[in-house]
Specification:
Layout (H helix, E strand, L loop, with lengths): L2 H6 L5 E2 L5 E2 L1 E7 L6 H14 L4 E6 L6 H4 L10 H4 L9 E3 L5 E4 L13 H12 L5 E8 L3 H9 L2 E6 L3 H20 L4 H15 L9 H7 L7 H7 L2 E8 L2 H18 L4 E7 L2 H8 L4 H4 L4 H14 L1 H7 L1
Helix pairs in contact: 2-14, 5-6, 6-7, 14-15
Amino acid sequence: MDRDFESNNAERFQTSPEGNKHAKLWVVASGKGGVGKTFVSSSLGITLSKLGHSVVIVDLDLSGANVHTTLGVKPSHMNIRHYFEGVKTLQELVIPTQFSHLSYVQGFWDSWTPIDFSIAQINSLIPQIKNLRADYVVVDLGAGALEAHLELFKAADEKFLVTSPEPTSIEKTYRFIEAFVCHTLKQDSTPDAYGNMISTLRSHRQRTLGKPFSFRSFLKEQTGLHYDFFENMASSPVRLLVNSCRSQSNTDLGHSIKSVCNKYYDLNIDFAGAIDYDNAVWQAVRGREHVLISQPFTSLAGQFLGTCKQLIDPEELRAVV
């Protein structure tokens, strides 16, 4: 990492009461594999680095760690497995890339046995991630609403949920959102209250409640449930990204999902943007050069630039617009 850059921009880091620098944590998840989650993670990382911020991408996709491939670098023999085995600190596993201010932590690349994370491991990992020497840490999660995924997603400063316009992906996106809501509420709920909530939600889906249902009102009327969930979600909403859009109807899908979440769960999510389908993406991966590097002035690059600037400096973006 460029030490002069890090020193000159130290004021941008969050600091704890002890004076330690805290990176902003951006987590990228998806309900289904194959929707372009790693492409989005790497694109966010490259875009942030182009804006002058130091970035570390952490590959936590247990079943298909390939951030290194999208960045055009060879897999390293040192990867995050060594952190979980206690051989290396997370900071010692940060690998620089050919891009200024952008580094990454190699995911599980050399494992020949099944791997899983426990909640305890994730809760131990989160402070280590935030203490990495960077402005931003982008975590590329594996697909699906696993409990460990949901726990890390909950801890993120920015929560990106990637979907594609395909029906299978849309369905899994809704299931991920439902699982995330339930996981978030479970921590501060009594077992009986949580069980009653799950039963009520199931009846609502099956259209057997026999009366209009408001999730927000339901939580307010119950004892043993954490009612300020919606206030917390408003301050740190799920950011939906629709990838591989080929038409206006694909682009409008984000607004539709947002509307459905509001109608059925009283939950406001943020439609962060639509990402165009572009043949250049897979061609760039085959050539081991990221498309935002090989074609930096396309609409695709502009879409990621707009998303990042809107989140890190919305006032500046409004001034430009």
